[in-house]
Amino acid sequence: RLHLVTWNVGTASPPPDVTSLLQLNSLGPPMDMYVIGLQEVNSRITNFLSDLAFDDPWSIFFMTVLSPLGYIKLSSVRMQGLLLLIFVKHFHLPFIRDIHSHYTRTGLYGYWGNKGGVTIRMSLYGHTICFMNCHLPAHMENTEQRLDDFEKILEMQFEGENIPSTLDHDVLFWFGDLNFRIADHGIHFVRESINNKRYNLLWEKDQLNMAKKKEAFLQEFIEGPLQFKPTYKFDLYSDVYDTSEKKRKPAWTDRILWRVKNLCQRASKEGKFSEEQTISVTLNNYISHMSYGISDHKPVTGTFGLELKPLLSDPLVTLNPEGDWSAAHDVLMSYSAVPEFPSSAWDWIGLFKVTFRHVNDYVTYAWVEDDEISSNKDSKQVYMSAAEIPDVGGEFLLCYYSKNLQSIVGISQPFQIQPNRMLIEKDLTQEENSWMQKPDKLESFNEF
């Protein structure tokens, strides 16, 4: 289950609540992955430079919401106002590999990043998946420029060996503020059609729908039905379309499309369906969220089911804590790796709280080679100093990070670290001593 968000946030700060946006109260099973594409994130130079050094406010906001629910930030990429975030449930981490990100500037003839695309790709259970968040040129007359820019973004190449081109991924998701407008119809006809919920009267004049009929490279992209009001342009904090002097004509600028490679290949074989379908994409929900008013755009979400035939069934590394863990003594962990695993001297095992936010959010870590204490053909043991173990205890995970693969390739089951009893007894003693002194102070106060 994948939940994808696209939202032009108009340089605003995060809203107080995103429960409905992320479908957190959904009665169905929880999402496995969240993909969040934002446009017009505040990119004033002071904000942008501070965001390069630290996580930006939107990333921190979504991590704060999702990490208590068992999601970690798998990857992110930022280009001025464009931001793409991907969160996944912990247990999928060992089966997500080859994560790469890229950005393509198209503003000012490719010199400025106010427009363009940010992209993240990965191998998910052995299938190649690519997510592309775009902000294309505005205004009614720039349809051709939008198409040219999208073609340029599609042509970008990820750095690294054996990484497929964008269109060679098994599944490609394309979304963002694509800025396509409703042609020909006047503003009164458009608004009247919207008021009467006769959206079908506008579909044929939607510039993206029109382009898909003519442009071959667009015809393989699929989109759900536009059964929601056009998402642009609204007065702030309202569901009223633009009342300013410009009175922009409403449009479905914010869109989510996808392309399944083997469907395209099968369709081109003139009805010969001998090739086995190993991945399928089902759109379960395609809606806008009218209650959010921080921007002149309404956010749009797509909830998908990805059905995968796993090409990877075992993690590269299996690891476990050994014995009881507490800060009273050094602790041990054991791990084993598959024979083909490309280990490195820079690999490490991190101790994480179960609500950790991202790969660098570890409590402590141990180098797998420097801190190794025993080894045999089946497994290896690594120690961690008691001084590094949290005294207060709690629920934790172990994660094996591969330097060569730049990702977590093994994760333990959650386990308990026992509180340090000596520390607790010391705290209790100090607390008792402080209370013993309080009656004297109270008596002195009463005498006064």
TrEMBL record:
InterPro entries associated with the record: Endo/exonu/phosph_ase_sf, IP5, IPPc, SKICH
Signal peptide coordinates: none
Gene Ontology terms describing biological process: negative regulation of glycogen biosynthetic process; negative regulation of insulin receptor signaling pathway; negative regulation of phosphatidylinositol 3-kinase/protein kinase B signal transduction; phosphatidylinositol dephosphorylation
Name of one Pfam family that matches: Exo_endo_phos2
Source superkingdom: Eukaryota
Annotated Gene Ontology cellular component terms: endoplasmic reticulum; plasma membrane; ruffle
CDD domains in UniProt: INPP5c_INPP5J-like
Residue span(s) of domain Inositol polyphosphate-related phosphatase: 1-312
One of the record's GO molecular function terms: phosphatidylinositol-4,5-bisphosphate 5-phosphatase activity
UniProt family annotation: Belongs to the inositol 1,4,5-trisphosphate 5-phosphatase type II family.
Name of the protein this chain belongs to: INP5K phosphatase
Organism: Steatornis caripensis
Upper lineage: Eukaryota, Metazoa, Chordata, Craniata, Vertebrata
